[in-house]
Write a structure and sequence with these properties.
The complex is a heterotrimer. Chain A is mostly beta strands. Chain A has 2 domains: 140 residues, no CATH class; 156 residues, no CATH class. Chain A has 3 helices and 20 strands. In chain A, strands 7-6-5-8-9 form a 5-stranded antiparallel sheet, with no helix packed on it. In chain A, strands 18-17-16-19-20 form a 5-stranded antiparallel sheet, with no helix packed on it. Chain A has a 3-stranded antiparallel sheet with strand order 3-2-4, covered by helices on one side. In chain A, strand 2 and strand 3 form a beta hairpin. The radius of gyration of chain A is 30 Å and the shape is elongated. Chain B is α/β, with parallel strands linked by helices. In chain B, the strands form 2 sheets. Chain B has a 9-stranded mixed sheet with strand order 3-2-4-7-1-8-11-10-9. In chain B, strands 5-6 form a two-stranded antiparallel ribbon. In chain B, a hairpin with a 4-residue loop joins strand 10 and strand 11. Chain C has 2 domains: 136 residues, Thiolase/Chalcone synthase (Peroxisomal Thiolase, Chain A, domain 1); 185 residues, Peroxisomal Thiolase, Chain A, domain 1 (3-Layer(aba) Sandwich), CATH 3.40.47. In chain C, 33% of the residues lie in helices and 20% in strands. In chain C, the strands form 2 sheets. Chain C has a 10-stranded mixed sheet. Chain C has a two-stranded antiparallel ribbon with strand order 5-6. The chains are: A mainly beta, B alpha/beta, C alpha/beta. Chains in contact: A-B, A-C, B-C. At the A-B interface, strand 1, helix 1, strand 16, strand 17 and strand 18 of A face helix 1, helix 4, helix 5 and strand 5 of B.
Chain lengths: 330, 383, 358
Amino acid sequence: MPDLDIEFTLEYPYTRTTGPVLGPFLTGLRDGRILGVRCGSRVLCPPLEYDPDTFATLDPDFVEVGPGGVVTGWTWVSSPTTKHPFDHPFAFALIRLDGADTPIAHAVDAGSPDAVSTGMRVVARYRGERVGAITDVYFVPEASAGPAQVIEPGTEPVRLTTHLIGLQISEPLQPARKRFALGLLDGKIIGQRSPATGKVYVPSRGYDHMARVEMTEADDVEIPALGAVSSFTVITPVRYYGQMETEPYIRASILLDGADSPIYGVDVRDTPVEAFRVGLRVRAVWRPVGERDVTGFDNRQGGNWEQVIERWEPTGEPDVDPARLQEYVF
Amino acid sequence: MARPCAVIGIGQTDYRKQLELTLDGLVRWAALEALEDAGLTFADIDAVVIGKAPDALEGVMMPELSLCDALGAVGKPIHRVHTAGSVGASTAITGATLVESGRYDRVLVVCYEKQSEGNATWALSGGRSGGQGAGGTFAPWIREYIRRSGAPEHIGWMVAVKDRLNAMKNPHAHLHLPDITIDKVKESPMLWDPLHFLESCPSSDGAAAVVIASEDAARSAPHPPAWIVAHAKRTEFGSFPGRDTVYIQAGVDCATALYKKAGITNPLEQIDCAEIYVPFSWYEPMWLEGHLITPVGEGWKLTEAGETELDGRFPVNMSGGVLSSNPIGASGLIRCLEAANQVRGTAGDYQVDGARVALGHAYGGAAQYFAMWIVSSEVHPTF
Amino acid sequence: MSTHRTPNRDVAVIATSQTPSYRHFDGPEPVMIMRCVNDLLAETGLERKDLEFTIAGSCDYLSGLPFAFVSNIDGVGAWPPVYESHVEMDGAWALFEAWLRLQLGDIDVALVIGSGKSSPGRPREVFPLQTDPYVMAPLGLDPVSLAGIQARGLIEAGKGSERAFAEVVSRSRRDALANPNAQVAVDRSVDSLLAEPYFSSPLRLHDLPPISDGAAALILAAGDRARELTSHPVWIRGMDHRIESHHPGLRDLTTSVSTAAAAAGAGVQDGPVDVAELSVTYSHEELILRAALGLGDDVSVNPSGGPLAGHPIMATGLVRVIEVADRIMAGGAGRGVAHASSGPVLQQNLVCVLEGAA
């Protein structure tokens, strides 16, 4: 039994413009210094673009703060996540840097929770490789910090900061989709017929949303891999992070015989556009048994039919009148 | 019972790729401009509503939490609406509802998107390869519209040119294409047949804001108010057996409810101009029909006759529309505020003379979410 | 700015439904919603078309799919087309919008939903994305760590102790034994809890909520329509919500000023509080919230077990309203308070006051 559980990383390297306050702040971090901004009689660090009490825009007036400061609150993180600044236990703390009136939240690499206390002094340390991000700096207990670092400043101001945000999603296929995926591996298309309305859905969502009725294995029906093209377009791929398509291709919906909803997102690369049309009768040619891959079928997306179907072949039958397909476009 | 309410302040950023601001700076630009336009400050606002499309577009989850300070909402109620592409108009409607309920007198509505931080097509594809984006979803439906209506192929190109030339009069618009012509549109690369590159909306950064106020607050505002005469929303499933994805029932129902509430019996004659969500050119004729402005099969004829031009019988997208600027979360609000601009007489170079009643509209998802409003220079317009 | 405006129309909760809190629900989220909606319709005898306005609360990022909320209308029904909306927040905020919407007087019945599946993702890695994207999120600064900082601050200010936190856990999860929907229901002594190691000091693993999937829904009706539909309407006497600064350094984390302001706006102190269901997501929060709401030690807090017993994020706040409403409907309480929160360290808070017929 193949492992059909879905493991997916939703990941993108976000690039953020930094503006007139955070830009200098992050440039400062890259260059080994921490900046706050004046706000009335106070110095705010981290700096803000506005007065947090009146919400009026501040004209940035920077002040260097730190590198030392006082811990005003903390917790010991015993079990760091993959997104934390360290992969060993450390403290997250609120740190009021010397010269600032507000504390910044950051990480303290102290070795042990016994080395951390409210009121203790910590000092900034900079990473060897700095890019102009909040992660360029971290803190350590001042008492055991050792000599000050010598930081080589950069040349260009930091206008963009990058954050690679990746989330691990782990979701088993829900029962109806699991049977559907197993069916594909077996060269069968399994849909479900609603016990309430008799309509046949493929792939099924596991329920009939029109009647608000859950469906079970008893409602499974096998659908022939044969039907009519109900709609299509020709896609010219757009480049984006993770995109693997390069050449234009047809993407179609096909209403299989006996189904009341079309299968969707079917990519067709073998038939030239001139020979492809709404109403064309087509039949699936399955990939050989060992070459079928259902990893593209998850709980929500229509699926990656190319991984199980080698091509859709015109059957030679007369076309279906497009007017009869106009309500099966999607 | 529902109290009258009005738009009394409007603010917008410029719409561009990669505005050199933080998210704070982006929303504050629009919010501060709307407040100034309304003669108010943050302190005068009772509640804030934010609207935007999926958080994955910027990689910031539930941004009301990290933007509340920037929007002066500390100590106040703030919440966030999310109804896909229609969100800008849904949020405007929610803002109106908050005032109509009698609970709040002045509500700040802010919608935005900073798509340059992420990638819209990536987000619309659920972060997976092979995504077709919105255009790839709508293209087959547009083909079906063309088949049913017999519309000639140049209709989409005409809309693309009209909206971009209108945008030349709108200093906020993203696309300023003074040399655009039918031939240029036709020759631009095909993206999702039949949509060419120049028939598709840009991916924009931007924020828009309005201040919605009660009658008393509106009557003391510095500019003439745009009274919110009626609003409506309708939703249907994106896919179901027998769904007509061209003449969409939820769109028909939404328009019907809207016109009934406003007392409009002949939208083509009684609405002076419209800002309609047209991200792909062919949606102009499709929505003219789908929202009962023209009979079925006739929408493209109104476009072809030039009647949807600024000086036509039924101007559409005087500001340049979504085809000229599309920060997704804001676009629906932009349609609503541009309708308000028209009836306040503050639409500058793209003002429709004497506009008294205007329509703002947005749609979203698999063309399944609809949100629309009617604004007027009169609190109870008669027809 | 005005506080505590009396609503134009009396609006009541007339029926409620919730799924159990599951560690992992093996079907899709719409099915959980569908079960609640079908349950409500069966209980009230209403048809889908009688639910004139629908509003849902959910969060795409929990499921890791942009536009995930779109599938949720499958559970609600959207054919023929319906008037509905969605907030990317806990269902309690959907409730607030529905309550105000019914004030307009043109419609009388609303369906409110909250739902979420936290099981597919890793919440400690998802929730840092709620923080400032420039100076906090890239540190992976998660709500558990921030809660630990707040809990320690509470102890150092003399407002709490590890024992007091353990007492909340012990009592809540023991009370949950009587709640058929609870996920974590167990009777453990305070001393046995205090013997466990720290997770995010001074918080221990049991001071944190479980990871849950779940959905909840209720029907609101206005005035006479409410009285037609049930003989036990639970009236919403007041509701308010406020937010604090998102910069933790700018707040006094040992108090909840936004809860206090929302409580004043909702009129909590206008009458007796027989029961309170509070969104105590981390045990130490109960001390802060009791103080902010002015609840004495005699007030029963979280008889359901609260979020420590089951935390279907995006439904949790709405479930608190439902737990209070159910107790009032059953005659076990006359007047109660429900609380919802959003954001790290109780940044945003909603308070709802509910009362049965006199």
